[in-house]
Amino acid sequence: MLWWVIALEAAAFAALFTAIIFAYYRGDRKYSPASIHNYPPEIQEEYFKTHTRVDVSYQSQNVLLTKSLGVLIFTGILFVCAAIAGAATFWQGFWLTFGLMAWIGVYDTCFLDWVLFANLPMFR
């Protein structure tokens, strides 16, 4: 596997992940309680003090559909990334996809959550 290809994939994956997040929160959806299940329980309780309560349990149809769609999208993206990077064995593909998911976790926390979402009014 080529390391420069993996680095390009990581950058493209972060850009695609950001585009998916922005597309998901477009229009009136950003003002709806549809995504409140992504927040910690303490924030959910504060939110529901002033808004209509919706089902945010992990068994609700909205949460299951959203999470299932996310798993399918990420599986496809990671499969393509492993194929492009030239993963020849299961373990090469496993460690590549593990590394890409770890990268997205760090990117999501350190950039999207702490920098972008904290400073863009459209997400608050």
Short structural description:
With 124 residues, the protein is mainly alpha-helical. The protein is 69% helix and 0% strand.
How would you characterize the overall build of this protein?
This protein is 69% helix and 0% strand. The chain has four helices and no strands. Helix 1 runs antiparallel to helix 3 and helix 1 (3-24) crosses helix 4. It has one domain. The protein is an all-alpha fold and 124 residues long.
Number of helix segments?
4
Let me know the largest β-sheet. Answer: none
Low-confidence stretches: none
| Strand portion | under 5%
Number of E-type strands = 0
Q: List the helices and strands in order.
A: HHHH
Give the domain tally.
Answer: 1
Summarize the SSE layout with pairings:
Elements: H1 3-24, H2 41-48, H3 61-85, H4 90-119
Helix pairs in contact: 1-3, 1-4, 3-4
Characteristic terms for this protein:
124 residues; elongated; 4 helices
